[in-house]
Design goal:
This protein is an alpha/beta fold. The chain contains 16 helices and 21 strands.
């Protein structure tokens, strides 16, 4: 990036845009932006935070882009018809993608840690960043979600941390192919599963990502990442597992609890450590092992890293306990693809209590492409007394094929012998949740791309208590 240049972020409130905008500003760039959510009156506290951070906000009507001296930053999802893009064309302002800008910062860092994979990226990125911060390594962190450890009254949306000369830690995304732009010192791949792209294409993207790294951190419990590990040169990979004793880091003796999980870590030929995470689920043991392996590659010893992880307080909207009222617990979760849904259901079913699930799909496209995988995830992961409620997918504008809707998924799941209902909107789901809830139930809200799910969860707690 050019520290003396003006940058205009189209969609500045997005989960990927906001942390990058804050880092560009901290490094001397002049930052402004627009967002459809701002124009629609959604998530006002986020935009108040951006204003208080010195980011100038404009309506997404093109009025904020007036000069060829501005660089307009867009996401892969922004369409040519967006007024800001049209205004940039008229003004002769250069347009770059978020991934291009992030990759330029990442690749310029003396040590870079790229966290990739279908699931667990945000949590693993937060864990690595927290360990390095606790170890005094002064990391810069770009995350797609709010890291609770770094939240303060002045930074309520802490999805970024700005360091100076320390490691650069970032999620990297395969969904749009932008992972190909990143050249990591340390490449972390948690898992590979069908999500946005066919597996064959994903295999090539992840293999190229790993090949460019000095060190690869790979999960032997996932068939695809284990296959990657077999193709890596000797001495280049650090592997982890909860099942394969050949792994460099092995997690053993998992003891789950509703608010966390205990386990023992064995480093091949080295230290051991006992660890209690404050985030629940076996999937978070895998995330923690990835973080321990990545920070070992940075020279942080196992005991120091494990001590830091014991105080890791989690990522917002990742199995986040919102509140309890009338004997009913409300949980907010980012699960939005079949793997994440399966992990969430497995974690919650380790303990007693019926699940009332509201799954808000994050788009019509994913619903159409992964219809059968969604059905399988819920049909196999739900208990007979669980109930699934689905509003139609979140939609904030743009063109899309709506040939598959939530009613189709709910119907397929009922055909598999599980309880599922579809509703036109989220408000109707809320009414039905209140109607169904009884003491001992757990309401879990699943979905991505919509920050208002958190306020919806808080409102459910309030209504349950009335």
């Amino acid at each position: 990036m050019n520290p003396n240049r003006a940058y205009f972020f189209c969609g500045v409130g997005g989960s990927g845009m906001l942390p990058l905008a804050l880092i560009v500003q901290a490094r001397g760039g002049r930052v402004a932006g627009s967002d459809r959510a701002l124009d629609q009156g959604r998530t006002a506290p986020k935009f108040d935070f951006l204003r208080s951070s010195g980011v100038n906000l404009s309506p997404q009507d093109g009025s904020g882009v007036t000069s060829a001296d501005q660089t307009v930053v867009v996401s892969a999802a922004v369409e040519e018809s967006v007024p800001d893009v049209q205004a940039a064309r008229r003004a002769g302002a250069p347009i770059i993608t978020r991934a291009e800008l992030l990759a330029s910062l990442f690749n310029a860092a003396p040590q870079s840690i790229g966290v990739a994979g279908t699931s667990g990226k945000s949590t693993t990125t937060g864990m690595i960043g927290w360990i390095l911060h606790a170890a005094g390594r002064d990391p810069t962190i770009v995350n797609g979600a709010v890291m609770k450890n770094f939240v303060t009254p002045e930074a309520p949306f802490a999805s970024a941390l700005v360091g100076a000369d320390g490691p650069f830690v970032s999620e990297v995304d395969e969904s749009d192919g932008s992972i190909a732009r990143f050249t990591p010192t340390i490449a972390v791949v948690n898992n590979i599963a069908w999500d946005h792209k066919p597996l064959e294409e994903l295999r090539g993207l992840f293999a190229d990502f790993v090949a460019k790294a000095k060190t690869a951190v790979l999960n032997l419990d996932n068939a695809e990442t284990a296959a990657l590990a077999r193709g890596v040169a000797a001495g280049k990979a650090i592997t982890y597992s909860v099942a394969d004793p050949s792994a460099d880091l092995l997690g053993r003796a998992l003891i789950p609890a509703p608010d966390g999980i205990r386990f023992h870590v064995i480093e091949r030929g080295g230290e051991t450590a006992d660890l209690r995470l404050r985030v629940p689920g076996a999937h978070n043991v895998a995330n923690a092992l990835a973080a321990l392996a990545a920070t070992r590659a940075c020279g942080v010893n196992l005991s120091e890293a494990a001590t830091a992880l014991a105080s890791f307080s989690g990522i917002r909207r990742r199995l986040e306990w919102v509140g309890e009222a009338g004997g009913v617990t409300v949980i907010d979760d980012f699960a939005h693809n079949p793997d994440k849904i399966g992990a969430t259901l497995a974690t919650l079913h380790a303990f007693r209590g019926r699940l009332l699930i509201m799954f808000q799909p994050h788009g019509f496209g994913p619903l159409r492409l992964m219809r059968q995988a969604f059905v399988e995830a819920f049909a196999s992961g739900m208990n007979p007394d669980d109930v699934l409620l689905m509003p139609d997918p979140v939609y904030f504008g743009g063109t899309t094929d709506r040939s598959v809707a939530s009613a189709d998924i709910a119907g397929d799941i009922r055909g598999r012998g599980r309880q599922a209902e579809a509703f036109r909107d989220r408000a109707a789901c809320g009414e039905r949740l209140i109607e169904l809830a009884r003491p001992g139930d757990r309401i879990v809200l699943m979905g991505a791309r919509d920050d208002t799910l958190s306020s919806f969860a808080e409102d459910l707690v309030r209504r349950l208590g009335q």
